[in-house]
Design brief:
Helix content: 25-40%
Number of helices: 17
Distance between the termini: 41 Å
Number of strands: 21
Strand order of the largest sheet: 8-9-7-10-11-12-13-14-15
Structural class: alpha/beta
Largest sheet: 9 strands, mixed
Strand content: 15-25%
């Protein structure tokens, strides 16, 4: 296996000290998933990673990055000592970016970041080796971790960038230095922290701060903030492309025909009409494809080749994955969209539910968080959508009461304090032929429901 990092490179990148002469083939921050040849980075989160250094080394890590000597029996020659492990990881990511010959695409936005990133992984993969963020590693440690893991021979890299508060996107973009930067959409996620949609647009627009000189910003044509974002990008000397349904968009969705398991889309890209057969359902997926194909075009690649490749894209767990599950007397369809939620993504999920040829359509909904004072109104606004599409709605959390109370009594499956207490009622209600959508913010722990429905495990 080609070395990812040598001891000399690690010392130089982090300004750290390391006695051992080793070859590192991977980078990990979780001792439970160590692979042979990894460097383990002892970060601090809910627990101090230094507590797991000995475990990581015993599982196959060749060295560990630390900023103090961990307790327990540890071979100190295998410790890369730095002033601060998060700063050390960031420095390692910067070194990974600096040596890379790959072409970089950065992705941010209120909704669709991870789906767009995964679609780019598929689309760019037909042109060369493509590296992309794992899971939703899109924050102050996720972006440098992705860069530190970048293989030397990668032709393309896709870096997802997220935020919870103002001032977080710019440093991530400056670290990643993408050649192409995508803003998928401007919504209301995290409006409780940022205060207004305009502030969200400004924060997402900060991806422009890191785009390489002469690069391309790909912006949402359907956003009211497009003029301001366009001016900002052009002031930075960047090319601008737009994506969406608005007339004049450079990558414009002309039509979309949904099906239960995918959809057919027609996209006009800079005068070239492309036909796509998508293997994942939802109009929002077709809109994400517009941004993906715009990025392919901006990189000087063949959009028709990428469009053909997108037929192989399927949504991942928590992101709209379709699964058959056992229920009393037969099977039902589970739409696992449990990872996160905003008004726009809930509506997109409900549209996928509506496309299913089910006996009944059931919605299990957990609170959308970080909406501040707008939380009650945004939950209530979804009641009309749910009423049109759903036969039964189960809710959990205090904010979802605003949706639940607005529904007709015949559609109220039940409201519960949390996802754990919702599970028994939902499981008892499901019948053969049903389709059930599970969605809510990460903090609402809707994954508990997915686990119960797919594995029948004890909920705790």
């Amino acid at each position: 296996m080609t070395p990812l990092w040598t001891s000399v490179e690690l010392r130089t990148a982090t300004n750290g000290t390391l006695a051992a002469d080793v070859v590192v083939t991977g980078v990990s921050i979780d001792s439970r998933s160590i692979a042979q040849g990894d460097i383990f980075i002892a970060l601090r989160d809910q627990r101090d990673g230094h507590e797991f250094v000995a475990d990581a080394l015993s599982r196959g890590a060749v060295i560990a990055m630390v900023d103090h000597t961990p307790q327990g029996a540890v071979d100190t020659t295998k410790l890369l000592r730095v002033a601060d492990t998060l700063a050390g990881l960031t420095a390692l990511g910067a070194a990974g970016r600096a040596r890379a010959a790959a072409r970089f695409v950065g992705v941010t936005g209120s909704v669709g970041k991870t789906t767009t990133k995964e679609m780019l992984r598929v689309a760019l993969g037909v042109f060369g080796a493509t590296h992309a963020s794992a899971a939703s590693h899109n924050n102050h440690w996720g972006v440098p971790l992705t860069l530190a893991r970048l293989p030397r021979d990668a032709a393309f890299a896709v870096i997802e960038m997220g935020m919870n508060n103002r001032g977080e996107i710019a440093p991530l973009s400056r670290l990643a230095q993408p050649h192409v930067g995508i803003i998928t959409s401007i919504g209301t996620a995290h409006i409780g922290n940022l205060g207004s949609q305009a502030a969200i647009a400004a924060e997402k627009g900060d991806i422009i701060a890191g785009i390489a000189p002469g690069g391309t910003a790909i912006l949402p044509a359907d956003s009211a903030f497009l003029p301001a974002m366009t001016a900002r990008a052009r002031d930075a000397g960047l090319q601008v492309m737009t994506h969406g349904e608005a007339e004049g968009a450079d990558a414009r969705l002309l039509s979309y025909q949904p099906s239960a398991v995918g959809g057919d889309a027609e996209i006009m890209l800079a005068g070239q009409q492309l036909s796509l057969r998508l293997g994942t359902p939802g109009r929002h997926v077709a809109l994400n494809a517009c941004a993906v194909l715009a990025a392919v075009k901006a990189l000087g690649l063949a959009p028709d080749t990428a469009a053909h490749a997108l037929a192989d894209f399927t949504a991942g767990a928590g992101r709209g994955a379709l699964r058959r599950i056992a229920v009393a007397g037969g099977e039902a369809l589970l739409i696992d969209d449990s990872y996160n939620a905003s008004v726009a993504s809930v509506r997109a999920g409900l549209a996928v539910l509506a496309a299913q040829p089910a006996t009944r359509r059931i919605f299990a909904f957990g609170d959308m968080l970080e909406l501040g004072a707008e939380g009650p109104a945004q939950h209530a606004a979804l009641a009309q959508d749910a009423e049109k599409i759903c036969d039964l709605v189960f809710c959990c959390g205090p904010l979802s009461t605003h949706l639940f109370a607005a529904l007709p009594a015949t559609q109220r499956g039940g409201h519960f304090q949390d996802s754990t207490s919702l599970v028994p009622a939902l499981r008892a209600a499901l019948k053969p032929g049903d389709a059930v959508l599970v969605k809510g913010s990460l903090g609402s722990r809707m994954g508990v429901i997915i686990k119960a429905l797919t594995a029948g495990e004890q909920v705790s």
